[in-house]
């Protein structure tokens, strides 16, 4: 508790000092010399400051000028790039960012699997997802698994932050922070409508209208997923409003509603099913996945002076998920051993003859409040910017499993009935010092998490607590002609789930250590000219304790832990000829090299200390491709723009033992490298409100494996889509 008291004291002092300075400014009293405001560094920074005053927001990645001075790696995929690429899913966008692996699952990217710098991508558990700086996951502390994702159409810009800057957010501070930015409400009436159709029964209707500080956005998309018997349908509604409350106060109100009703299975294919029927073979035709999510937030910004702002956000969301299925993996015996063995032999089975189906029924309620203070001042005689924040966050989970006695049953025997609660209090304080261009950025974050679990079937309950302190330090050294060096080191942390810490049968605590890493970055970035920039980064993530949960590394791997090491390099760059001659040729590249993703010791099951599926010192960690690259080339002339994109994913293993040959159940074996090509053709006449496009995804119809955790899953077959839009 001493660390908690220390952080609380530091934040109280920071807030007290800032507020006292604000009162002094309002009363006309002179401010102390040590805390005198520093003028904005340049016009770009001043413009950004004015924009923030008009629309309160939590800044994750700032302007281009601010990114140039950042102490850690930052990436932005802006609205122009998103629109130009005509992306189908968020996976396509994130592959444009170095260090990220976005693995396809059902075909729409609505259950994303995002990995960072070699970390396992299953359910995106090792990163933090935000929307407008507010938690987007339904349980980022107690169950950070992504079983839903809003359509990428909702967003106009996506930011990715790695390195020491992650400590400004949390709780995940190992992989990356991904922040999805929704459009700002316009003052004048404007909007658009876009209709897209394609093969595999794809339909997408998207409309947006705004004015007077309001914005409404609606997306409806549906179609066949990556294989037969996979019908996906999603509806998303997003509203946003901005209110000015005088020169010092502003509010932003957000409200969202999302619904999905899809026929989609959980299990993959056996090796024999794939060989006999191909990658698009559909299984579990009676499976059904339904979710509904409501969310809302209110952000208030108080800016009593140019150098001081206090941003406070209240947020709450509810997420309900019902997934009924007859099989979870290719070795599932829910329908009996004979049923399982027939699948392993590649025989077509009658799923409706199986008198069993299981419903995984989940309800989540999450709410919280967060305040963030920013103050530009003089500290120890040098310009400095203080940022500090506190957050109280609460999660409630209701989890049931119901086993029905027919293929399409939706009621039956309750075999799991859990309530899980997670209460989290966090705080951070950081200060950026400027020494004639060179900047130093020390920061520290504290997380305290209280867990509770109740098994209603036997009445047993238990609770436990975890408190972590994460320090970090970064610097940025500007060089000549727009070049800069930066480096950072910080302690990373990822909270465990309540089910991993508290035994379901006894309510006792499980002896498992918190995940703990040491993360280093060394980078070089440059802004050479308008449209020409690059960033190169060396990184090293050393896990003193890495925790693997569930089926992330071959079949039913139990909760396991061990020491791991990830080392590599990233490069991102863009080049445009727009400033050189008529027309515009452009090139963007995102490259990741991961030569080291090594088990530094054998990973062992927490329950019994046994090796986790053949884990051994020196073997490569699973789902960590050695190379990842996205290259996009294009040319624009007049109203026309054409581009081709190459996406390459290197070879990887699917289990700790580094098994080469494919197993009969499809859950083990190496995953070969793959290259896919995407083409886009855009027509956007300047004199007309109409626009149109044609796009080909996986244009060569490449067949490639994406995942083996529950059996073989393959990438989406060739997609051909056309769209027409109208703006006003």
Core attributes:
728 residues, Maltoporin, Chain A, disordered N terminus, globular, 32 strands, mainly beta, 5-stranded mixed sheet, 22-stranded antiparallel barrel
Uncertain residue segments:
1-53
CATH architecture: Beta Barrel
Classify the helix fraction into a percent range.
10-25%
Helix run count: 8
Outline:
With 728 residues, the protein is mainly beta.
How would you describe this structure to a colleague?
This protein has a single domain (2-727), classed as Maltoporin, Chain A, CATH 2.40.170.20. The chain is mainly beta and 728 residues long. Residues 1-53 have low confidence and may be disordered. 10% of the residues lie in helices and 49% in strands. It has a 22-stranded antiparallel β-barrel. A five-stranded mixed β-sheet has the order 1-6-7-4-5. The chain has a two-stranded antiparallel sheet with strand order 2-3.
